[in-house]
Amino acid sequence: MWILSAIICFGSTIGMFVYYTIKIVMLERKK
Amino acid sequence: MENNANNTNGTSGNESNVSGYTSRFGLICILMGGAVGAGNIWRFPRMAALNGGGAFVVAMLICLIFVGLPIMYVEFFVGRATRRGSIGSFRDILGKKYAWMGTWGAMCNLLMTAMYTVATAWIFRYMFMSISKSYYGLNKQELFSKVSNHDPITIVIFLCLIVALYFSIQTQRIMEKVSEILLPILFVILIFVAIYAVTLPRGTEGLKYLYNIDWKTLAGPTVWLNALTQTAWSLGPGMLTWLHTSIFNHKNDDIVLNGKCQGYGDLTAGMLGAMCVLPCIFAFLPSEEALALCGSGNAGLMFVGMCSLFESMPGGFIISILFYVALGFAAFSSILSMAMVGVCNLMDMGMSRKKGILVICLFYLVVGFPSVWSLTFANNQDTVWGIGFVVTMVFLSLIVHKVGAEKVRTEFINPVSDIKTGKLFNVGALYIAPIMITIMFLWWCVQSVQWYPDTWWNPFQEASLSSLLLQWAILIGLCIGFNSYLCKKVSPSPYNGKDYPPVPESYIQ
Predict the structure, then answer these.
(1) With an 8 Å Cβ cutoff, is A26 touching chain B?
(2) Do A16 and B418 touch (CB under 8 A)?
(3) Which of A6, A23, A28 sits opposite B211 (nearest CB)?
(4) Domain assignment present for B66
(5) Interface residue of B264, B276, B416, B421 to substitute, partner A, most A CBs within 10 Å
(6) pTM of the prediction?
(7) How many domains does chain B have?
């Protein structure tokens, strides 16, 4: 159960961080 | 100047395309370096452990979305739209009689940073003690008491930090370079220590405690208030650091995407910090003792509990050095951005950047010295100005009321942003943030009565309600008393209520 919670909590936070970082990198490459 | 001729969105062109930052990476490193501080490592794990683990993380995510990010966007807007420090910004948007609000925010930041520099000196003192193994076998409580009360070596480290700060913020480019070095090292160390901690025997006990969502705790107010406090103290909306960072931004630099990266990066660093600390504690202590340690305060956990663990755990020598290096880098990178709050306001009064930096460093030296001399004074500064600055978030919300949330969002934030913020920003900045912050502020005041139920009325009792009120009243009195003088002293801003003016020449270095 705690593994599921870890995926939800840590996964969503780090997921968002990685997602926005990749988005910035992609946008910078386009420019 | 040639390197600054590009904005951090990558376009180049005429004079208005000058930016104070050389690259978007540098800007994000400064933003994240400022946000990721010691609070991510020494406070987040404690708060998570004491407030239902995963439930606390859920509450923090919600506080980040509804309070932290909207107020941060407001700071980005204000700094870039006025190209002035907090005093000039509040004066030119809200009116002359409200400029003291900007002075209040800047002063809270300055007073808090002076104490924070002292805390950073403690961290580096422990790093050196880890290298020399000099805390091994000693009573850790007595040792911390010695280190935090007029210890000569701590005083020398404190002086060295101020000198390092002086040279690190001479120009935005140097600041960028320092942040670009510190931040990646910090994340690499955190990841390494987290992997080590999680793989300890019983290390997963800490993870279970961290991530097991106790949904019932979300029904009570405490977890929300603690999550909001953590968001405020860690990410720093209302600390005015971001307002001053954005003065140097090109007028087309992104706000929303950079802000989200910064916000979620800060939370990620907090979770990595928790993954370093909690598995270590739970691996070596029974659950009750581990929780008691988490409840012993930031210093109790970092300088007493963790020291004892490092001494006894396998590989503790290396891990302790890495741990305190990470903690020190996190703290120092935050001081870099926080120091600019004072420097920018002095620059608005006609001082050169170099002179402003010198004045601010001397201020930290003089005001921080009592904190390095006495732990009681340091604790007082931490509590009084740590609670006091959150009021600035309500003041920033007043700016949104004055300018109009929809106008701020559609005319100032979204046009320059790679991703857009929705109407959630309006609701968050106009209503949720000020209401939640006011409740949180009152909750802390009530807590200060509960800490000292018999002496809360005594203004000389550390952290008592009357002591807090007295110190806030003195500062507000001074801010209001000097309001007219400061309004005249700060040069007029180019704020026009329509678009972002270019970065002033004096800020490009």
Answers:
(1) no
(2) no
(3) A6
(4) yes
(5) B264
(6) 0.92
(7) 1
CATH number for the domain spanning B363: value is: 1.20.1740.10
- Using the beta-carbon criterion (under 8 Å), do A20 and B264 form an inter-chain contact? yes
| Cα dihedral B475, B481, B483, B488 in deg (nearest 10) | -130
Average pLDDT over every residue of B339-354: 95
Question: CA-to-CA distance for B142 and B301, rounded, in angstroms?
Answer: 14
Nearest CB partner across the interface for A10, out of B211, B260, B265:
B211
pLDDT digits (tens, 9 = 90+) for B150-200: 999 999 999 999 999 999 999 888 998 999 999 999 999 999 999 998 888
* Element at B184 (helix H, strand E): helix B172-198
Whether residue B48 is predicted with pLDDT greater than 60 in this model: the reply is: yes
Name the one residue in this structure whose structure tokens are 């100032």. Answer: B412
Angle (deg, nearest 10), helices B24-35 and B256-284: 40
Q: Please choose, from the candidates B486, B237, B478, the residue with its C-alpha nearest in 3D space to the C-alpha of residue B346.
A: B486
**Which domain does A20 fall in, by range?**
1-31
Q: Are A13 and B11 in contact (CB < 8 Å)?
A: no
With beta carbons under 8 A apart, name residues in chain A contacting B271: 9-10, 13-14
Is A5's pLDDT higher than 60?
yes
Indicate whether B7 belongs to any domain. Answer: no
Convert the pLDDT of each residue in B233-288 to its tens digit.
999 999 999 999 999 999 889 999 999 999 999 999 999 999 999 998 888 888 88
Distance from CA of A27 to the nearest CA of B (A): 8
Domain assignment of residue B261, yes or no: yes
Is residue B5 assigned to a domain? no
Please say if the pLDDT value at position B13 is more than 50: no
- Give A31→chain B minimum CA distance, Å: 6
Tell whether the torsion through CA atoms of B267, B273, B277 and B279 is positive or negative: positive
Interchain CB contact of A5 with B (< 8 Å): yes
| Contact partners, residue B286, CB within 8 Å, separation at least 6 | none
Q: How many domains does chain A fold into?
A: 1
CA distance A3 to chain B (A): 8
Domain residues for the domain of B456 are 27-499
The answer to whether B88 and B348 have CB atoms below 8 angstroms apart is: yes
